[in-house]
Amino acid sequence: MNQREIVLASLNHRQPAAVPRDFGGTNVTGIHCSLVAELRDHFGLAKRLVKVPDISSCIGWIDEDLAGTLGCSVAMALPIGSTYGNPVGEWKEWRAPWGQDILVPEGFGFRREANGDVLVYPQGDVTVPASGRMPASSFFTDAIIRPTDFDEDHPNPRDNAEEYKILDSAAVARIVANCRQARASGRAVTLSIPGTSIGDIARVPGQGLKHPKGIRDIEEWYVSVSLRPDYLKEVFRLQTEVALANLEQVFTAGGRDLCDVVHVCGTDFGTQIGTFCSLDTFHDLYGDSYRRLCGWIHDNTPCKTFKHSCGAVASFIDAFVEVGFDILNPVQCSAAGMEAKVLKDKYGSRITFWGGGVDTQKTLPFGTPEEVRREVLERLAVFSPDGGFVFSPVHNTQART
Q1: What is the chain's alpha carbon radius of gyration, rounded to the nearest angstrom?
Q2: Cross-strand bridge partners of residue 112
Q3: Do the beta carbons of residue 31 and residue 38 sit within 8 Å?
Q4: For residues 344 and 383, is the Cβ–Cβ distance under 8 A?
Q5: Is beta strand 188-191 parallel, antiparallel or unpaired with respect to 261-265?
Q6: β-strand partners of 262
Q7: Is the pTM higher than 0.90?
Q8: Rounded to 5 degrees, what angle do the CA atoms 131, 395, 210 make?
Q9: What is d(CA 59, CA 363) in angstroms, rounded to the nearest whole number?
């Protein structure tokens, strides 16, 4: 089996010839750019600046030589845009606050403050209020919550759907080209299509919009799940219509086999100890959108559907399967009720666990090499039998690991 065949076998719950491995194959299974540079040095690979498609998380792009060295089984199609609204594809050199020279999208717009903080601007336009801040002591960018004129008495759901646009032909062509480039690696290809991230809190502040409208405060958004469910339902309906149109355009242009996995949504439903909402709320607010998106993908392509949700979501796994998700990531085994053996025994034949390989909150950054090795082998012993598993650390590997 080649790397792609290994992944496909496991996704179809067959025992693959080897355990499929993902290091950097999605934007939630990545490695911080500072660590990517260290890995390149460790393995004696050619000196080059690390590409960072999205400055929000500062995940480093895994070039082909490093992917081969790490034995990666998964390749991500390069995204066409960043959280801050910059097209991705052309690069410029930039020095990050921690002193690393990296490559960022050509349209990246920023200003450095006297204290060393970096302000990031939507669509690179430094004439409008900044939408992100990278503190001088940080390795990531925080969203800046900008004030909006949300009218409580006359709310307009289109305000919170403003950033979701039907792709033009040039954007579709870039997505197809990026998928084909990833396919040439011989690994399984993952793809994120703009618009499918129903309710993803990372996108609520609208960092890519110059003048966002609607509910953009994170706390207010979470409160709205209870206080304004009809408003959110209409936002999700509008967003889903756009997402379905984009799915149809991309797969019509690129063919049914354009990719192997569609990263549908990164909305988190779990905290460290429980869930953000009830199952009834999940079905009432999100269920219809997920069914429509996953249903379209399953009806029109052979692709598997990827659901990212951190936290203690064991009680939601049946619902994830019911609405059409094939894959759960990051499998946060340190959260309440997420013990690896319990998850595998109860759900292993119905959903693929993509992640869970080693804890990135404690073990990987703070454990000894022996402790890391022991945890990895324990997780492999539990999750890998009979397929339904792609090895990856729990979420992105953090700076200073």
Answers
A1: 20
A2: 118
A3: no
A4: yes
A5: parallel
A6: 191, 305
A7: yes
A8: 15
A9: 20
Cα gap 132→158, rounded to integer Å: 23
Strands laid side by side in the 74-76 sheet: 74-76, 188-191, 261-265, 304-308, 327-329, 352-354, 389-390
CB 28 within 8 Å of CB 395:
yes
Q: 338 near 331, Cβ under 8 Å?
A: yes
pLDDT in tens for each of the 401 residues of the chain?
999 999 999 999 999 999 999 999 999 999 999 999 999 999 999 999 999 999 999 999 999 999 999 999 999 999 999 999 999 999 999 999 999 999 999 999 999 999 999 999 999 999 999 999 999 999 999 999 999 999 999 999 999 999 999 999 999 999 999 999 999 999 999 999 988 999 999 999 999 999 999 999 999 999 999 999 999 999 999 999 999 999 999 999 999 999 999 999 999 999 999 999 999 999 999 999 999 999 999 999 999 999 999 999 999 999 999 999 999 999 999 999 999 999 999 999 999 999 999 999 999 999 999 999 999 999 999 999 999 999 999 999 999 99
Q: Which amino acid is at 292?
A: R
Distance CA 84, CA 286 (A): 25
Q: Please name the residue that has the structure tokens 């997920």.
A: 290
Residue 235 has, within 13 A of its CA and on its CB side, a CA count of 27
At 133, is the secondary structure helix, strand, or coil?
A: strand
In sign, the C-alpha dihedral spanning 384, 304, 207, 54 is: positive
Question: Contacts by 337-344 with C-beta closer than 8 Å and gap 24+?
Answer: 337/312, 338/312, 338/313, 338/314, 340/378, 340/379, 340/382, 340/383, 341/382, 342/314, 343/314, 343/317, 344/382, 344/383
**What type of residue is 93?**
E
